[in-house]
Structure formats: C-alpha cells, structure tokens
Amino acid sequence: MQILNGSGVNKAFGGRKAVDNVDFHVDENEILGLIGPNGAGKTTLFNLISGAIKADSGTITYKGRVISGMKPYRICHMGLARTFQKAKNFPDMTVRENVLMGAVFGKKGTDNAAAERKTDEILSFVGLEDFRDKSPGDIALALQKRVEVARALATSPDVLMLDEVMAGLNPTEVGEAMELISKIRGSGVTIIMIEHVMKAIMSLCDRIIVLHHGQKIEEGTPEHISNSKTVIDVYLGE
Amino acid sequence: MLTTLINVLSSGLIMGGVYAIISMGLSMQYGVARILNVSHGEFIMLGAFLCFTLVRSHVHPILSMLLCVPVMFVIGFVLHRTIYKKLSDVSGSTAAFESNSMLVSFGLMFVVQNVALLLWGSEQKGYTFLMRSVKILGSPIALNRLLVLVFAVAISFAFYIFLERSRLGKAIRAVSQDPSAARLLGVRRTRVAAICFGIGAILAGCAGALITMINQINTSMGMNYTIIAIIVVVLGGMGSIPGSLLGGFILGFIGTVVNYIDPSLSLVAYYLIIIVLLLVKPSGLMGGKS
Fold first, then answer.
1. Measured distance CA(B38)–CA(B136) in Å, rounded
2. What is the pLDDT of residues A179-195, one digit of tens each?
3. pLDDT band at B232, cuts 50/70/90?
4. Inter-residue contact B241 to B284 (CB < 8 Å)
5. Which of A90, A154, A159, B192 lies 20 to 30 angstroms, CA to CA, from B116?
6. CA nearest to B240 within chain A
C-alpha cells in the first residue's frame, strides 16, 4: 500500500534545478533511504513534501490526497512529520517543553492533559527522561537529535522524515540511533531517512532512492544499490 | 526625605509599569510577527483617545479601558491580515519583510496621527479621576496613580502567565524561537503572527488608557512612547518578554530619578543607557545568542 507518492516533482532555485522531475513512492510501514552526494536535492525533497517550500510543478499525494501546495501546519496535522539536519530545537524551552510543543499542536483537538501524558510517554520511548528538564543547548549532540525526533514523534505522525539524524554521532551513538529507528518503525510509523552513514542505511532500509544533481538515478533494495554501477560511478567518480 | 523617596519610588513603579506594558507589546510584534512597529506609539495614543472619548460619554474609566481591549485587538489583527500578510507574501525573505514592514509602519504612523488630529484636534485633553489621595508610610499618594500602578503590574504579570501557560502562549513562544520548526509541528504561523500583532495593539491601547487616568493627552504623544518602547526592547533583549518587563521597570525608575533631578535630562539618560548597553552587552539584559 502506497502512503506517499510523488510524480514529476520539480524545484529550481535561480537557474539550478534542485529537484529535477523526480517520481517516488513510499509504502506503508517501510523504511525508505534517501542518499546521494551533497547538493543532490535530498533536503529540498523533504522541504517539498513537508510544505516548507512549494514545488514548481508536479504533485505529491499523501494517503490519496494531494498535499503539494498545502500549508505546513495542515500537512503536519495529516500525520507527516520531519526533523531537521541542523537541530532546530526551541532554545529557551526545556527538553520536555520542546516535545510538548509537538504533542500540543501536532494533532487537532488535543487537550492539555493528553498532550502532557503523550509527552512523558515519548520521552521514555526515546530514552530522554533523565534530560527532561535540561535545556536542549546543554546536552550532547546525539541527545539534541533525539529531542528533534521525539518532538516530531509527539505530533503522532504516520510518516516520519529523518534528515541526517546520525551525522556527527560516534559509532556507539549511531548504533543507539539505529535501534531507536527500528523501534519507531516497529510502532507502525513509516520512515523516510536521509543519511550519509552507509552502515545504517544498508542495514535499516527496505528500499533506497539515490539522487544526484536533483535527479533520481537509482532505486532498489540495499543489495541492488550497493552493486549498481551508476551509483558507484557517482560516489567514486567525483 | 522619606516622602520624597516614596514619591520617586512610586512614580518609578508607575512609569515602569506603563513602559513594561508598552514594551511587551512592541516585543510581541517584533519578536513574533517580525514587524518593528514604528507606529506603536500611535496605537497608544489611539487607546488613550478612545478611552478619553468614552469617559466623556460618561463611561467609567476602568470600563473604558476594558472596552479598548477588543477594539484594539480587531484593529491590530485586521491590519496584519490585510497589509502585513500581503507584504509578507510579496517579500522574498524574512530580512526583506522586516525592512518593508518597518517602512509600512512608519507610513502608518503618519496616517494614524493625522486621522487622530482631524478627529480630536491638537490641544491637550484630560479628565479628572480619583484625585483623592491615601497615605502610604506617611506620604500621600493619589488614588488614581495607585490604581494605574496596580493595573500596570497586574496586566504585565497576567500577560506573562498567559504566555507561559496557555496553548496560544506556547504557540507564540514556539514561533518566536523558531518559526520554521513551529509550523512543521502544526502551528499556524501567520495566524499566530496576526494574533500577536493584535495583542501588541491591545497592550498599547491599555497603556494609553492607563495614561489618561493620570496624565493629560494629545494627538502627538505617540512618538515619545515609541522611542521609549524601542529603548526598553533593546535594553531587555530583542523579542524577550521577561526582558521587556524588567527593562520597562528599570527605565521607569531611571527616568523618574533623572526627572526628579532635572526633567530635561531624561532623554539624555535613556540614550546613555543604550550606548552603555550596546558597548557592554549588545544582546540586551535577557537577550539570546543572536
């Protein structure tokens, strides 16, 4: 069952095509990896899906409804959440308050008590209970990224888009992040992840899409991708 | 001596309270809606004349102030929904919007001021209200001033608690700290910005109404308050509500003390504070990193 689908999606900045006529789909409860060299258009694609920017042409449908052109808050209310490559936590709030924001505003009609309950559940789900009253600026990078993930999860998403949650983490932390991602998928959430840590991509993803200069150059299982001549050329040819 | 001290102290608190309200309003409009509202003082004047007109039609001053709240909110909200929303759509970036919106508010200042001039003329206006005085620690304080003090402090703290506790307050804080993250968490950013602009207008209007209870007013009073509000916001830290609260009281006290020594020096003192602040702590007393 396809939960998210894009066809002929285009976005140019100035004269440069950041996303060039990309078709994609995401199946329910899979983990889809999005890889490619820097500047390939991965984050732009996330921005287009989440509604942060508008596509020049093409359509994106989510659960059968066209979402391209919708306001970000509406897309969020429909169950699409994301994290940012560079953690965008609210600096003047505690870790708990950060997560609470997602719980309060993510779904329509959540009352305060329910949001508080949800926040505490998520804090323990991602293992942040001990840091709940800390400022997100005062904790390790790996934990800051976890706050981002927790905040996105608090919006009760059906699809979660993770933008390089493992960048800058040490091997132990990468292992912990991988565990968390499988756990999130286990709870029924569909995941799209942008990542440069190949070990994580190869072992977690069901399917991978490779972008290069805004174009989709390859798509398939991890084995297929690691044996693809086009992909090897792109990564080693530069 | 004690009488003078209590006099200066109470005046400082009263002025500080009014400054705090004004500055929190400006801080809301700048911190969340990204509009440096140069016409803020004109909304204070508008609130003052609205209240004055109502009092002249035999409405109680306190009721008049309460009536200002919805009227000022609607004016602010509609202004944002029409002019500023449109401006934000045509401005390419936040930086472009910030400079465009400041220019628009500058124009708005002249429009509001001249419309007020047509409606109410240029002479001083005022009414008497609660002129009796009570003795506090042996020195007399006028009841109207005491009332303004109570209201100013109550409004400031009520507003602060609203920001900390309410759902809307949370949305406002989220947008002011990171607008793009906030809207991806389901916060309606432009709606929140419009509401904040409206709240800024409410605070300006309430301050204006409070001023009518203790001072005479005229249609060109606004500019003075705009300058004070900008100084307080810079002093407290751009966009920081607790900063504006603190900065308002600090400026109120300093202003009163200087005023007691030599009234002509108060503006000099304000600018001196700003110069020192910019040299020592440019982000303001409670400002963030940026």
1. 39
2. 999 999 999 999 999 99
3. very high
4. no
5. B192
6. A92
Interface pTM, i.e. ipTM: 0.81
Residues of A in contact with B185 (CB under 8 A): 76, 81, 101-102, 105-106, 151-152, 155
A74 and A90 both lie in a single domain: no
- C-beta separation of A160 from A182 below 8 A: no
Among all chains, which residue has been given the structure tokens 């039609």? B57
Cβ of A71 and B187 within 8 Å?
A: no
CATH number for the domain harbouring residue B255: 1.10.3470
CA angle A222/A227/A229 to nearest 5° reads: 125
SS3 A238: coil
Q: A237 CA to chain B: closest CA distance, Å? A: 36
Q: Provide the shortest C-alpha distance from residue B215 to chain A (in Å).
A: 38
What's this model's pTM, rounded to 2 decimal places? Answer: 0.85
Q: What are phi and psi of B124, to 5 degrees?
A: -65, 140
- Mind telling me how many Å the CA of B92 is from chain A's nearest CA? 12
Could you give the count of Cα atoms lying within 13 Å of A88 in the half-sphere of its Cβ?
A: 22
Q: Does the residue B233 lie in any domain? A: yes
Q: Do A101 and B288 touch (CB under 8 A)?
A: no
